[in-house]
Amino acid sequence: MEKVGFFGIVIGILWRFWPVWIALAVVLANVFKFKRRLGLFGHLFDSLTGAAGVLICCFWLFTALFAHIIAPLDPRVQVAVMKNAVPGAINPETGMVFLLGGDQLARDVFSRAVYGARIVLTIAPAATLIALLVGVTLGLPAGYFGRRVDQVLSFLANLVLAFPVILLFYLLVTPGIMDTPIPYAMAGVLFLFPIIFFCVLFYTRFKARPERLYIYLAVTLVIGFWIYSGLVFNADPLGIVSIEPNELNIFVAVVFASSPGVFRIVRGLAMDIKTRDYISAAQTRGETPWYIMLWEMLPNARGPLIVDTCLRIGYTTILLGTLGFFGLGMGPESPDWGTAIKDGSQVAQLRLFFWQGLTPAVSLMSLVLGLNLLADTLREQSLKD
Amino acid sequence: MLSFMLRRLGVMLLTMLCLSFVVFFFVNLDPNLRKLAIFQTEMRASDQDLESWLHRNGYRDNFFERFGRWLGVWPKQPVIDPATGAAVPRFRFCAEPAEARFSGVLEGDFGCSTAFRATVAQRLPEALKATGILMFWVMIVMVPVSLLIGVLAGMREGSRLDRSLSVASIASTATPEYVSGIIFTAVFASWLGLLNGSAATATSKGVSFNNFTLPVMTMAIYGTGYIARMTRASMAEVMTAQYIRTARLKGLSFGSVVVKHALRNALIAPFTVIMLQFPWLLTGVVVVESIFNYKGFGWLLVQAASNNDIDLVLACGLISVVLVLFTQLISDVGYAFLNPRIRVS
Hey, is the C-beta of B276 within 8 angstroms of any chain A C-beta? Predict the structure, then answer.
């Protein structure tokens, strides 16, 4: 079988990513043009690590967005002659280059890694966001009220935290559990928190102005329950929001595993902020506890929360990889990085055809690295203020 | 102090009870029981056969009663063969008490592993020992390296050494075990051919440099970065303290200030972090033992969970929960001991 050399592969890969380079160039040009006005985001480019973090994150974000343009082949399509092909091998029938070789089912490793980004970058940020809202909705009252509320909620959070992640996944993400109502019940409870959060948020702020309150509440409830019905009951009336049962299962497990961590952080922040003067001032003004929590404390806790969210998206990516690595949840054909790493890491496979495991592994590592660098720079920037 | 310890122990026991109840609930979900019944009866058994098998072996008894039996606070009933009237064990390969008596986890009876066709108590100790050896070597490598990196980075905050070490530790926290395992195996085993890509021989022929370096390296790398970051933060904070400046002004050399004055206070925080690393290492153990085919606790857990081995999953779950809670307790108590400013109340 003919193949292109090392430089051919590098140039081929760089060429395939052309939409990403254009998008990155647009972002960079805008950043340098409006640097003054961007505030914190502009300052990220002051340090090398910050710039690297932003660029890596944007790179994967655009890769996920343009996956259908970048990837030369569908991630599930099998080209029999290319089974276990070396990187750069040329398909003798069509003359197409398999830039990073073929895997043991004769699929294009490069296309699978690119499409894998799409799966990871959909589930990881969404799950982190829901975990964040769950953690905030429960952590603020625990830190603010203290006493009994705190004791009960902290005990529950510690219960989940004391559970080894891997065991939790093995129990929650087995094929059998889809026959029981448990994942749907958990999804029903966990996805309710964002709706509660936004309703309380708007209610406490616009209580005195019913004409605006009703609009906000109506919008929140309509959008909230639209997504809710699509995700939990898979019965979206418009048919736009839908999720596979096994993906829902993964989603729920990841949210469930990471929300106690957010809870702990928010609770700690709330206990710290509670002692500040402006909280006493708000209490003296006669504001309700929930107004103080959501409109006085939460904005002042945003710095550490943003940093934590960044780190947590990375951690969620690692969790998703772990799930895929153990063959839990994701379908066997799924192009996500964890599953690809699992397929490529069997001893014989790794010995002879290392690129099959190495490609998704390096992709996953670089994304998490980008997020961690970003979080680190954000932390340093927020310490400077 | 004593009442603090007692209360912590009480909460710990309650947590353990709750968690084992949750694990018990999940492994005994109906689909799992049916799978077990299908596996234990013939393949072509009808629904009715499965149901009667489950019924006869006590899987359809009251849920709390069964939990009590597993725990050992409720007498375990023998299974009576309707044909002969004699007590028969539920599984051929495990002996069971012939008359009703307490026989659960509290009495040391962990039940029967259907995947390995042996009692759980026979399989568990050797697996734990194997994992203990792995953990020992990981700690030996991870703790000194990460503390050294953290102290070197934190003693001169903002220096070039600090920058490069910080980036290195961030990179290591971005490398989960299944990524580093693959990269190391590809480089050191496939490409250079220096080391064994599998630790399977470690169980039979004993631990050697060739078969154990890769698993230990793979596991150590993920935790190293985290501990190093924590040590760096703590060290950097200590270095700005008044007494360090006093020591410097007194004319002590930089090295002696770091070693004699800063280190002791800077290493309090990492102690907690190292202790809390154990739960993380548990996930790492499972991944690493699967990649390198090392038959320890993590490997056992994977086998148990993927083969629907109910009693073995329960035992593994209990052990990991105990491990996690115990390390939390040690880290709390140790922190209070090391740092006299913390008052336990």
Answer: no
How far is the C-alpha of A22 from the C-alpha of A16, rounded, in Å?
12
β-pairing, B87-88 vs B79-80, is antiparallel
- Chain B nearest CA to A312, separation (Å): 12
Q: Contacts of residue A159 in chain B, CB cutoff 8 Å? A: 15, 18-19
Q: What is the pLDDT of residues B326-345, one digit of tens each?
A: 888 887 777 777 766 655 54
Cβ–Cβ gap B321/A176 under 8 Å:
no
Q: What is the pLDDT of residues B273-291, one digit of tens each?
A: 777 777 777 888 888 888 8
Q: Hey, of B157, B178, B194, B218, which one would you mutate to test binding to chain A, going by the most A CBs within 10 A of its CB?
A: B178
pLDDT digits (tens, 9 = 90+) for B118-132: 777 778 888 888 888
Q: 3-state class of A108 per DSSP?
A: strand
Of the candidates A256, A261, A266, the one whose C-alpha atom is nearest the C-alpha of residue A139 is A266
- Helical axes A337-344 vs B177-184, angle rounded to 10°: 40
Q: Tell me the shortest Cα–Cα distance from B221 to chain A, in angstroms.
A: 13
Residue A381 CA: distances (Å) to CA of A139, A304, A370, A372, B305: 25, 11, 16, 14, 45
User: Does the pTM exceed 0.95?
Assistant: no
Structure tokens at A220: 């929140």
Quote the Cα angle for A305-B268-A155, to 5°: 50
Torsion of CA B323, B327, B330, B336, to 10 degrees: -150
Quick one: which H or E segment has residue B87?
strand B87-88
Give CA separation, A261 vs A135, A163, B177, B212, in Å: 8, 12, 21, 33
**C-alpha separations of A330 from A116, A313, A361 in Å:** 12, 19, 17
Q: Which of A161, A142, A145, A169 is nearest to A153 (CA)?
A: A142
The answer to whether B67 touches B18, Cβ cutoff 8 Å, is no
Query: Are the Cβ atoms of A365 and B174 closer than 8 angstroms?
Result: yes
